[in-house]
Amino acid sequence: MSRRAWRAARIVPPLALAFASAFASVAGAAELQFSASVDRTTVGLGEPFQFVLTVQGEDMLSVPSPVLPPLPDVNVLGSSSSQSTNISIVNGQMKRQATVSFIYALAAKQLGKVTIAPCRLTYQGREYQTAPVEITVVKAPQAQAAPQPSSSSPGLPAQRSQLPVDGNLTLSVTPSRRSVYVGEPLLLDVSLLTRFQISNGGWAEVPAFEGFWVEKVFDAERFDFQRRTIDGKSFAVAPLKKSILFPLSPGVATIKPMSFNVSVAQAPRDFFDAFGTSQAVRIRSKPVTIQVLDLPERDRPAEFSGGVGQFDWAANLDRAATANGEPVNLVVRVSGTGNVRMIDKPRIETVAGLRILPPETKDESRVSGDVVRGSRTFRFPMIPQRDGRFTVPAIALAYFDPKARAYRTLHAGPFEFTATGSNVTASPVAEASGLRVLGSDIGYIKPDLRALDTAPLAPPFWPNLVYLLSLGVLGVAFGYRGHSERLASDRGYARKTRSSGLVRRRLKDAESRLRKHDEQGFHASLTQAVSGYVGDRFDIDSHAMTRDRLRAELEQRAVAPELAAELIAIIDQCEIARFSPGLLDAHDPRALFERTRDALGRI
Amino acid sequence: MIAVLLLLATALRPVDAYNEGNRLYAAKDFNGAVSAYQAALRGGASAPALYNLGNAEFKSGRIGQAILAYRRARYLAPRDADIATNLAFARAYRADKTLGAPGPLALALYDALHVLSHRESALLAAFGVLLATLGLGVWIVRRSRLAVAAASVLAVAATFALATQLAWRAEIDARPAAIVVPQVSALSGPSDDAKEILLLHDGSEVAVREMRGDYVLAQLPGGGGGWIRRDAIERVFVAVPPAR
Fold this sequence. Notes:
The structure holds two protein chains of two kinds. Chain A is an alpha+beta fold.
């Protein structure tokens, strides 16, 4: 509470008493109850607390102020009073029950047990006395006095700005401790302390907390003010940020100043400024230094993995037997208070025939006060590469206990399990021959090459054309089969099919005879070629036909009349040459041969 | 070292890059060997180079990449026992075991239909059909019993080759792929804020069912699956195209 408030409070008791005395004219003397109490029995050194003297009585007249005893162990920061009256009518008679409270703000000056001696009150010649009150004074601040119901921004408490900003509007950065070991967590509490009415605000600058690993605990999204008395002043306090800091290296680490912008409500300047205005103010925290102590080198175990705090662990296999190469998991769970998330995995010795994979890590942590509690679980999948019984050697993990200032080592194991039906096993030959299998590995690389045969991954397209060729072959086979069968069954088709070959042979024979000057033979072959071809071609018996009949047959088969006449003329000429050579005047066998070949080609 | 390998990759013939990879592998420079084998493969697919690449990937701790290389090598040379052995070995090293593994009958059928490579089966099927058709043609023309017997045998061989070809085609069409990152979460949808439903590890073999944006829908052999980041997965036969 401010000095002004306390000055105002000092005039309250007389008013209250005057109010109480108003009943005195209608009431006579009555018995009083006089008692003393404190708002809490354990307080921090220098921390304000309330000491209340209560006077209660029926039809009470004016009550003088009580007399405080000497208070060598506490400071009196201020006082106030309040009174209440309860009027009731019983059986037509009015009764007034009045209560007057004298409230003192005190602060302890020394640690330990502090006793407030009995207080005295004299009323209507009679002296009343309270019982002594004992409080315990401790070093750390305790719960703050009389927190008010929280309120969100804007506008809680205090008053409109008529006060200087310094000392009345502060950005408080408070570490839970000033000296820690490397890796030992500390809680950083950032709060807004104000005696003004704040409408809104926001961060202007937040440092990166260099030299620390930071875990966020709380970031305010709105003001949540609570009343707190600090150095005799009443402040509205809103937490803005809470973080857990883990120092990373020894030395003096500094948390740089932070800046926060707020809008402070201003008092109305005149009648027209009924609602007042606001003023933007940037407040800046003071730098905070933390002494970071290095972890002792002496007696540091080889198994130390970075943990600082108090930890315990549990390590076990998730199964005692496995089959078909299924992995067995070694689950190691480290739990406790401290930098649990900075603990590295424990080292596991290699085991022949067992593949140990890097672990999956799962973290759980929560903040309780300024203590980080949590667990870190490592899950090591272990895959057997052969059948048999496996023993994973014992594992150990060391951490530093800052309270004891010493290293502690946790032990677990060894762990055993049996594997059957693993995919990669000793060859049957090795097992049958009794050879001892020491391990397994992939087959070695292929040797050097003189030429590297390469091929595209996709198969070639051209084999698809072979399928078309196959269809063609099948078509030819069926065609040939049909041709053969027709040759056997269809005489005309057979004669026609064979006619070309026969005429070629006969013409060749005729030409041969012509070269040998065998004119009889030549003309006979030529006659046979023409008659045979015409007969085969049109499936007629041309040898037995008269010229007229042959001409009619040829014309019936759409042979041109000129060509039919030519063929008949050739036959006639051949027969004259054979049987009446004297009738021919200028006979040229070569010309006749050419005429014949030409005529046959035109059929 | 990388610069030297890049230089080698551009300057050496494929066979020289392959032999250089063997030298680096023997010197236990497995990452260097990977680069050399990849350079050798720029000239085309080669079963020995893919096999050795798989070995180098495996020794470098990349199980998924090793499985991809072995599967590609097996596609080219399915009767190579070394490839089959190392593929099985790499699969045994995976953190995730295959769900819904096929039974012995299905495995025997799979093996039988993968005796021939895709290329071999395509060629055998084509020429088998052609020769069988010729035999059939001879029988049609001549009614020769010998011809029909030969055509029957050839038809059986061609049918087997066709079945093998179809089996390979089905395997390619299934779009098989492998996880190539240490671990990745399979999500319920193709977005970052989708729920995590599975945790898959390096080497897990899946089938790519669908692609959307930066995600692919991966299905496990047992039927489960989820949406996985594109950069966490690589297809066996066709590389998953990078995200646009």
